[in-house]
Amino acid sequence: MRFIAGPLNKQLLQNLLGEVIESCTRVRAAVAYASRDNLKLFEACAQHLKPLEFFGRYDHTVAVDPAVLKWFLDKASPNFDCKLVPDILHAKIIWWVDAGAYIGSANLSDRAWISNIEAGTFLPHDELVETGMERELQRFFEEVDDRARPLTKEIYQEQLRLADRRSELSKREYGLEQQFDKDRLLPKNHGLVFVDTKRSSEKRFQKFEQDWNDTLQVMRSIASRVSAPGAKPGWIDASVAPGVQADQFLHAYYYKQVKDGNRHPYEEFFARNSKNPELALRDALEWWHDADFDHSFEERTIYEWSPRLRELLARDRILKLTEQEFVDAVSRVHAIRDHAIKQENEHLGLPDRPQAGDDKVEKFGEWLWRQRSREGRTVLELLNYVVWGNGSVSARLWNAIRSDDWAIPHIGLSSLGEIVGWARPDEFPPRNMRTSKGLRALGYNVRIGV
């Protein structure tokens, strides 16, 4: 944790922004007030191609400067989403997802970032996960989203008119507020006197379930097509499960066709391919069938890792795994490997010097073996529940990442969705964050992280 007090301790938000923008996967910001003199957060997201979801305040005071609203309207991109919360938003939170979060007093203005006395804290991703605050942040943004409305051209024009009037009528503040309440486009919020968290949670689960199942059908369709005799590359045996073939097709497409050095321009691909996803998929399948590239990684996954995972995660085996077998299993799950390699050496009990990726993965697996949910569930119980439990897979995944009974730090949706696929590839193609990015790059309107 770091204390961010601007000039008082020389911990500036603009410096923090530069540190974390590259390593985050997207940005979610709920900051009540945003002025035209500080677009640093927004411009950094645009420069680094990071999806941005911004929540600002909506009221008669023009809390979000019309110039900020115009910035979002001019972008006209699915990568940049501006929503407004009527009357009750006063938060100042910037969440660089997978990198960390700032929670403090600073609005998006030069005064707040440079000269005001502001105070806040920055919690890196590891601390958010280990303290359970990542889940709390997720719930916070979901509650804010439930009360927000998307920016429209009409709202921008209304706020622009209000801004002009405020400069003329500063002495008639009360009358302006009264007139605004009479004519306002969005209904007034009267505060969080009561929040029906159960109802809100049910609505969010329904949305998650719909997104999960819709994308599952897309994955199944791709699996049937990529494994067909005319589409399957000659080096893949016909006995390989279609779900495994779909996973490796999307893996290769994302890393060899979409990723560009340190850039991950899947939203640029989406903007282009969403006009005709079928054509994009046909081109990608043709590339997959004919491409001459080193596919040793894909062969290892298909012929070594996938069968071993299916063996270890079998219904009659999963609860009997030894620690060594568990570490062996999770070391073959790509989402867990990626997460493990990003961990600080100190967290894994390793010396403070560069470490081999496999060593970090092994240590992380050993650490994960010892973790428990808040209600005392072991990681083997968690995996068995997600892979082989009763009810729908989507419901089990929802519980596994959100409930105190099941959720275990550092094992999230991306890892669990992939694990289900390796255990049961005939029913559920392996699915992680990279899978979703590959699908989105092909033009499918899927949500990243679902």
Tell me about this structure.
- One of its GO terms (biological process) is phosphorus metabolic process.
- InterPro entries: PLipase_D/transphosphatidylase.
- Residues 85-112 form the PLD phosphodiesterase domain.
- One of its GO terms (molecular function) is catalytic activity.
- This is PLD phosphodiesterase domain-containing protein.
- This protein folds into two domains: 2-195, Endonuclease, Chain A; 199-441, no CATH class.
- It has an eight-stranded mixed beta sheet with strand order 1-7-6-5-2-3-4-8, sandwiched between helices.
- Strand 2, helix 2 (40-47) and strand 3 (52-58) form a beta-alpha-beta unit.
- With 450 residues, the chain is of the alpha+beta class.
- Helix content is 53%, strand content 9%.
- The chain has helices at 13-20, 40-47, 66-75, 110-115, 125-130, 133-146, 153-168, 173-183, 197-226, 242-258, 266-273, 277-290, 296-312, 323-330, 334-341, 345-348, 357-369, 379-388, 393-402, 413-423, 433-441, and strands spanning 2-4, 26-31, 52-58, 80-86, 92-97, 100-104, 120-124, 149-150.
- The model has no long low-confidence stretch (mean pLDDT 90).
- Helix 15 packs across helix 17.
Q: What number of structural domains do the residues give?
A: 2
Shape: globular
Please give the count of helices. 21
User: What level of helicity do the residues show?
Assistant: 40-55%
Oligomerization state: single chain
Largest sheet: 8 strands, mixed
Alpha-carbon distance between the two ends: 28 Å
Report the count of strand segments. Answer: 8
Radius of gyration: 24 Å
Overall mean pLDDT: 90
Strands of the biggest beta sheet: in what spatial order? 1-7-6-5-2-3-4-8
Name the beta content range: 5-15%
GO biological process, one term: phosphorus metabolic process
InterPro entries: PLipase_D/transphosphatidylase
GO molecular function, one term: catalytic activity
Domain PLD phosphodiesterase: 85-112
